[in-house]
């Protein structure tokens, strides 16, 4: 039985996309790499495609955080502070569940990222449901897919 994990998005160039790993026995985060070469321009939001999707249990999500060194040494932040990858994002009909890392370059200089550079980390997390919660909707895509 499988619980949670990562897969390469089928439409993405598989070459050079590595399934995330934790670097040490007690690291919480799975290191997530950029799926392509990119220039992260100052003062702009850039979506970094990862070439990855994640599957998990129903009451779990994958929390995406910046790698500390990207923030502290290079001034990159996540524009949404923490990316929430919902369990039902996996294999959605729009983009298959492609995980995007939404970065903002706080410096005045462009920052180059190569395919395979570790940019973010993902931590699988459990959440709790409120009494009377009977949500049944189906996710069809990514950011803003359930409204505006
Ligand atoms: O940094 C992020 C944040 C979100 N997502 C994907 C996964 C998530 O399941 C989906 C929707 O994100 P969220 O629910 O945070 O955005 P929303 O603006 O509330 O959109 P929706 O109306 O689709 O829920 O977009 C990413 O790939 N990267």
Task: Give a quick rundown of the structure.
This protein is mostly beta strands and 148 residues long. It is 5% helix and 35% strand. The protein has one domain: Deoxyuridine 5'-Triphosphate Nucleotidohydrolase, Chain A (Distorted Sandwich), CATH 2.70.40.10.
Uncertain runs are none
User: Which CATH architecture would you pick?
Assistant: Distorted Sandwich
Any idea what the shape is? globular
Ligands in the model, by name, code or SMILES, are: deoxyuridine-5'-triphosphate
Q: Encode the helix/strand succession as letters.
A: EEEEEEHEEEEE
What does this protein structure show overall?
Helices cover 5% and strands 35% of the residues. With 148 residues, the chain is mainly beta. A four-stranded antiparallel β-sheet has the order 2-11-6-8. Strands 4-9-7 form a three-stranded antiparallel β-sheet. A two-stranded antiparallel ribbon has the order 1-5. The radius of gyration is 16 Å and the shape is globular. The N and C termini lie far apart (37 Å). The structure holds deoxyuridine-5'-triphosphate. Deoxyuridine-5'-triphosphate is lined by residues 64, 80, 83-86, 89, 99-100, 102, 142-147.
Task: Break the fold down into its secondary structure elements and pairings.
Elements lengths: L4 E4 L21 E4 L4 E3 L4 E5 L2 E4 L4 E7 L1 H7 L1 E3 L4 E4 L13 E6 L5 E3 L4 E9 L22
Antiparallel strand pairs: 1-5, 2-11, 3-10, 4-9, 6-8, 6-11, 7-9
């Amino acid at each position: 039985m499988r619980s949670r994990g990562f897969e390469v998005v089928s439409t993405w160039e598989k070459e050079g996309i590595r399934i995330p790993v934790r670097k040490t026995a007690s690291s919480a985060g799975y290191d997530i790499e950029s799926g392509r070469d990119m220039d992260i321009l100052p003062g702009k939001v850039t979506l970094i495609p990862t070439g990855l999707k994640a599957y998990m249990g129903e009451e779990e999500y994958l929390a995406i955080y910046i790698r500390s060194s990207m923030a502290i040494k290079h001034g990159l932040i996540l524009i949404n502070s923490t990316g929430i990858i919902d369990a039902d994002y996996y294999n959605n009909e729009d983009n298959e569940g492609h995980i995007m890392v939404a970065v903002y370059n706080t410096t005045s200089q462009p920052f180059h990222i190569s395919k395979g550079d570790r940019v973010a980390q993902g931590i699988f997390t459990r959440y709790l449901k409120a009494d009377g919660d009977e949500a049944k909707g189906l996710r069809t895509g990514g950011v803003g897919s359930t409204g505006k």
